[in-house]
Write a structure and sequence with these properties.
Mean pLDDT: 97
Order of helices and strands: EHHEHEHEHEEEHEEEHHHHHEEHEEEHH
Radius of gyration: 21 Å
Helix content: 40-55%
Bound molecules: pyridoxal-5'-phosphate
Oligomer: single chain
Strand content: 15-25%
Largest sheet: 7 strands, mixed
Structural class: alpha/beta
CATH class of the largest domain: Alpha Beta
Number of domains: 2
Length: 400
């Protein structure tokens, strides 16, 4: 059988999956720093810089930051291990494939999960969260857990509306947000939004290889966990809240990843967070402008039905029946050097997804869109021919 994997071609291969994302050279080089002994004061300084940088990025100076040598699923489990109790339930708001997976994993830990329903193409149903909290007069629900950007659908939900709904019910539930796909692309203000716990991982907006997860925890969530959560150890916030480095990491810290994070946080600060968010907004807008223009022939459409839900990180493009998005991805990747993502869960075989988060600029986006358009031509997918023109016009109009 012929391998579909083409040999190395010259030039840069474009990564437009919504994680892993392109890693800037500065971060790669930082991760190649030589190892040292753990008592070296440089290690303590590195950890302190990463914690301070994360608090700054999240806008939560008082929260505790816990780093884990794990991917996003690992920090999902970290949160569940620290908020799981046999006397309580966890409410996971339906947003798409990622909330489904989080719920399955939480149930797998033997915890009681309440799920709210989700409508394809739309944001999280805030009324359903409010109704579930109102019905819970005994306050069995320990936490409301939501995904800010569901990466499978490319839809971002409104965290402030959810906070207001929780407040209206006067329910004491802890507010937990998964910012894995949205952090450093979409504005997130942990304290301003009244979020008690948030979690993320390194390979998306933080512009790093996979392998480093974090959880930020405020005093309310920390105290609740200490009083009510089931026994746990490796993930335990209580064990890790310690000035002793080996306790803080439950063993050896992931030094290379921390060195990468220190650098990526510095790059974000140098650009300035408002500029980072505006850049992602602009690049996402250009992708959607192209997709809308391509869609005039009826073979494609934006999956997100609500403009308030458009994501700064990723755009899911629905294909008409009879079009194989996996074949399109293969041609785009192997012939035109543009790696996109496919559909997950209920959307598998129905969408392709264009990632536009992380270390990304205008020519990268235009190159990716042109490569995707070329792949559509090879695959004989009918598309409107004004896609590139629309993307360029959008960028010209919105460039500061
Ligand atoms: C990618 C992602 C995850 C899972 O992260 P992994 O590192 O793949 O385990 C969780 N939540 C969201 C929103 C994601 O985009």
């Amino acid at each position: 059988m012929n391998s579909p994997i083409t040999p190395r071609l010259p030039g840069i291969r474009f990564v437009h999956s919504p994680g892993p994302t392109h890693v800037p050279d500065e971060v790669m080089h930082a991760m190649q720093r030589p190892m040292t002994d753990l008592a070296d004061p440089r290690v303590a300084a590195l950890i302190a810089a990463c914690e301070a940088g994360m608090k700054n990025l999240l806008n939560s100076p008082q929260s505790e930051i816990f780093f884990y040598a794990s991917n996003g699923h690992g920090v999902w489990e970290a949160v569940c291990a620290n908020l799981g109790s046999d006397k309580h339930s966890l409410l996971i708001a339906g947003s798409g494939h990622f909330s489904d997976q989080w719920a399955i994993q939480t149930e797998g830990l033997g915890l009681s999960v309440i799920r709210t329903p989700h409508t394809e193409g739309h944001q999280i149903d805030v009324d359903a969260i409010e109704a579930a909290l109102r019905a819970d007069t005994a306050h069995k629900i320990a936490a409301v857990m939501v995904v800010q950007t569901d990466t499978a659908s490319g839809i971002t939900s409104d965290l402030l509306e959810i906070r207001k709904a929780i407040d209206r019910t006067q329910h004491p539930a802890i507010y937990v947000v998964d910012v894995v796909a949205s952090l450093a692309a979409t504005p997130f203000d942990m304290d301003g939004l009244g979020v008690d716990v948030c979690l993320g991982s390194s390979q998306k907006g933080l512009m790093m290889p996979s392998g480093l997860g974090f959880v930020a925890v405020n005093a309310k969530a920390f105290d609740w966990s200490h009083q009510h959560a089931k026994p746990r150890f490796y993930w335990s916030w209580f064990e890790r809240k310690s000035p002793v480095q080996s306790a803080r990491f439950c063993g050896t810290p992931p030094l290379a990843h921390l060195a990468g994070l220190e650098t990526s946080l510095r790059l974000l600060q140098q650009e300035g967070l408002p500029a980072v968010y505006a850049r992602h907004q602009r690049l996402g807008g250009a992708v959607r402008a192209a997709v809308k223009a391509w869609s005039t022939q009826g073979a494609l459409k934006l999956h997100c039905q609500d403009p308030h839900g458009f994501s700064n990180s990723v755009t899911a493009v629905e294909v008409a029946q009879g079009i194989d998005p996996e074949a399109l991805r293969m041609v785009a990747r192997e012939r035109f050097q543009v790696a996109m993502a496919g559909g997950l869960g209920a959307l598998s075989g129905r969408v392709f997804r264009i990632g536009h988060l992380g270390d990304m600029n205008e020519p990268m986006i235009l190159g990716a869109l042109a490569g995707i358009e070329a792949a559509m031509r090879v695959q004989k997918i009918p598309y409107g021919d004004q896609g590139m023109t629309a993307a360029i016009a959008y960028l010209v109009e919105h460039t500061p």
